Amino acid sequence: MALTLLDMQRLRKDPFEKGVLDIFMAECDISKVLPIKTIGTVEVSRRRNSSLPTLGWRKRGEAFPAVSGTTSDTITDQVFAMGATIDIDKTDMRDKNLIEDPLAERTKTAVKAAAWTFNDAVINGDHATDEDMPEGLKVRLAAGPTSQVVYANNSTTALDVSPASGPTTATLYTWLDKIDEAIYACDGHQADICLTNADWIRAYKSALRRLSLYKDVPMEKPVNTPSGQRSTGSDFYNKPIFEYNGVKFFDMGLKVDQATAIVGTETVGSTTRPAYFVKMGDDYFHGIQQYALEVSKSYMLDDGVTYRTTIDWPVGFRHVHPASFSKLAGSKVA
């Protein structure tokens, strides 16, 4: 059964491990909604039919025609080990005058970096850049059918919907039509989430306000137990998410350098920002893990003066259906 990290965090008993997942999710919004399946191995394959046999019609007294074979391909994905090794000197571990516990501080920093790295991999993971990371949406789209890329205008000219440029009502309606076209490109004509940058979401909200279509989504309510008590004390779970027409929009934020946008700009006639619409689930885009994220207890190395903690998570991404996601390209939003 696929679980989100939020589900996994609620099942953890160890306070330290719960805290690690808390920090990770605080820095990685998508981890709270992306289903992750535990596969118990490092690689999983599945045969996918790219065509179906044709069944014929018969006259009375005739036999049905033979069913021809189908064409198929094999979809294989694997997990990749993501983690960190945290070494702390015995002197620092026992120093009673430090402002912050060194193990807690370095673990927090490492987990935040892991969350930003995970965010980046969802979009930009590429074996050509780093063979030790999973392939993200950008590479998967490039290897998929061209129908999954929708242009706001066309492949050589951008559609300027930047609030600063004062787009016309006709231009904004055209953009909304193209957003719907990108959503319809996903299987079942519906997407679960949209992954993009803050300036794209801001332009989308502006367009909806100008067309008198904008509506605020109320803050999600805390998850309560039957006794009425909160099942978790984490405040960020109640963080409101912009949602329109059943699609939740996420700002993927910045890379580890905290300067470069994860969903970077593209040149389609001019500088534009893409948006990725994703359908999640077993046949669609989801995460896979050999086992859940593990955080070791601190242990002394053979040198006798160094304590080590290891964060380990063999994780990857997977999709089978070719219409698991789509991209709206060519939107000039700033």
What is the overall silhouette? globular
- Specify the oligomeric state: single chain
What is the H-and-E element order?
HHEEEEHHHEEHEHEEEEEEEEEEE
User: Considering DSSP H and I runs of 4 or more, what fraction of the residues is helical?
Assistant: 10-25%
Helix/strand class: alpha+beta
* Count of strand segments: 18
Largest sheet: 6 strands, mixed
Mean pLDDT: 88
Q: How would you describe the overall organization of this protein?
A:
- With 334 residues, the protein is of the alpha+beta class.
- The chain has helices at residues 5-11, 15-27, 90-93, 102-124, 137-143, 169-184, 198-210; strands at 36-38, 43-49, 72-78, 80-89, 149-151, 159-160, 193-196, 243-244, 247-251, 266-268, 270-272, 275-278, 286-289, 294-295, 299-300, 306-318, 325-329, 331-332.
- Strands 1, 4, 13, 14, 15 and 16 form a six-stranded mixed beta sheet that branches. It has a six-stranded mixed beta sheet with strand order 5-17-12-7-9-8.
- A hairpin with a 1-residue loop joins β10 and β11 (270-272).
- The longest helix is centred in the middle third of the chain and has 23 residues, at 102-124.
